[in-house]
Amino acid sequence: MADTDQQRLLELLHAHGQKFLDSFDLPSPPTKKRKTHENHALATSNVVEAESDEEESEWLGFGGHGSKSSYESDNETDNSFDQGDDGFTASSSTRLPDVIVFSDTQSKSAEKKIMDTAQKKAFMSSKASKVTAAQIAGSSSVKKDDDVDEERTNLQNDAILHRLLHTKLLSGSLHPDLNLSHAQREKALAGRVLELSGSARLGKGEKITRETERNKAAKRVREGLLRKKEERDMAQIEEAKNLGNYHPSLKKLYDSEKSETGRKKRDRGLGMGIGRFSGGTLTLSREEINSVTGRASRGGRGRGSRGQSNRGRGRK
Amino acid sequence: MAQTGSLVHFHGHQYLRQRLVLSILSGKSVRVDKIRSDDKNPGLRDYEISLLRLLEKVTNGTVIEISVTGTAILLKPGIIAGGSVSHDCPLSRSVGYFLEPLIMLAPFAKKPFQLTLRGITTDDNDLSADLIRTVTLPHLQLFGISDGLELRIKKRGAPPEGGGEVQFLCPIVKQVKTLNFVEPGKIKRIRGIAHAVRVNPQFSNRMIDASRSVLNRYIPDIYLYSDVYKGEESGKSPGYALSILAESTTSVIHCSEAVSKPGVTPEEIALTATHALLSEIRQGGCVDRKHQNLVLLMMILGSEDVGRCRMGEPSVRTIQFLRDIKSFFGISFKIVPAEPSEPSSTELLFSCYGAGYINVNRSLA
């Protein structure tokens, strides 16, 4: 009898463990328990049933109904054990109503909160365009994928259109939104024509037209214009210095006039026909050598490099 | 600008603002007489005088003549100059009274407007600064006036002492776009602003709760914000108000508001505003009743094309406004039922041929 008693206790422990595991919805089919049940089904069923009541009260905390039903079904299947296995799996599925789904609300709400604050900020903004734009943005986030795709193609189309419009030959200066005065527009147009014809570099056309126009003026006026320009440049440098964003290395940026002419480097040393003599040596530049040997600078260099590479291969 | 010989004549003190605006825009002189001539206190009120002064500030070359008794005025309009102007509004009316006509003028000024108005920002007679910012200015956007359109509420001022300050910035346009707005859509969101100055700040939360109790059953997308102004910014007098607006899928905006009254709880104020919003939505149409005038004016000033707009029943003020438009611009609207098949529907379709008004005041490019 001691043997059966021990077995009974073991069985109880198993049942307990199974119930515990079941409360987590783990798919673990009990194996050993079945056999013991098979052996002692008739002998122990009453006792187990009696015990089960106690355990129910203990385990109510885990979701009483589910555990109870599983345990009962366990007991029921004791009698007809052919269906036992199915019964067990079924019992885990009947547990479903007890499952409480804790969705990941934390991150969602945080995201929503950020959106809310952005919405609020936009709505409370003093700018009228923001008040309405925010509402449009809010609604667009709900859009379907199709709409998003359509919008993308629309955006591409917009980009193409933009490029078309802005690479037109003469449109730039004639655009009415620039609010140029008539004289300004005319000069800009003339400059653009110069640029297109290739007689001025890109972006310099207008300046050239202005300069030629200036050259038509009387000398006094011309000088006055130049002096004024110089004064303006000085004032600009002065202002930059006062603001503290001037550095001697940036001087080129501020001298609009001088940077363009590009002062020629004065040859130092003694000039003697060709090259220059300084520090006791005659220095010849590459061009000067080429002018004597009669080789085009590019070709000579190219050949030289090729030769070197050949040599390298040869050593290998 | 003033064309000699073109003089429009009116009687009575009503609709003075819209007549002055139409006069300045059309360039026709206006003469208004019998201003409260039968009243115990005859003549112009202080706010009307103040409005005339403000119009004189924002224009150049305007001649205003007021009779000795103050019961008749003659206004010969000049050009709308714009620029930065500041004005102290009297405490008898809110800044909305002064802003409404100036919003109609501002897009056609010579220089972009930078107007600072000081006084009461919210009262129960005129549009509050909140509604002007959230509803009136978006209505201007329908006509292509959007970049740089701004209303900053620097300080709030409740009646009777005021102490508020708003700053209105408006860009200038060459010409307004033609409107074609006939789809009212469905209401998709409701927004609102509750503010309480110099009273318990919980009042705004109480208003929001009360308003939500009614609105929550209709749509889920409701946000009512409580706007907090402290210390100097909150003006000189205590007060609170709730302004709500409903926006539809086609960005139609309906609005309503309610302002604190002595002896009334915040909950009741909120319910008044909420019910007013619901009845406003019930009116239907694409334009709020308080903004019919603005939209109609911009429609006739549009380019020479047919503009159409669907509206609810016109208010009394709108009907008079249509008559005044006819006497100043010689333009009349074609008004037909929006849904002829449904006899119960009161919505109307307004269409007109634009005057092709071009902003001649704008500094020439």
Automatic annotation (TrEMBL), chain A:
Annotated protein name in UniProt: Uncharacterized protein
Species in which this protein is naturally found: Hygrophoropsis aurantiaca
Lineage: Eukaryota, Fungi, Dikarya, Basidiomycota, Agaricomycotina
From TrEMBL, chain B:
Entry protein name: RNA 3'-terminal phosphate cyclase/enolpyruvate transferase
Record keywords: Transferase
Protein source organism: Hygrophoropsis aurantiaca
UniProt KW Transferase keyword: yes
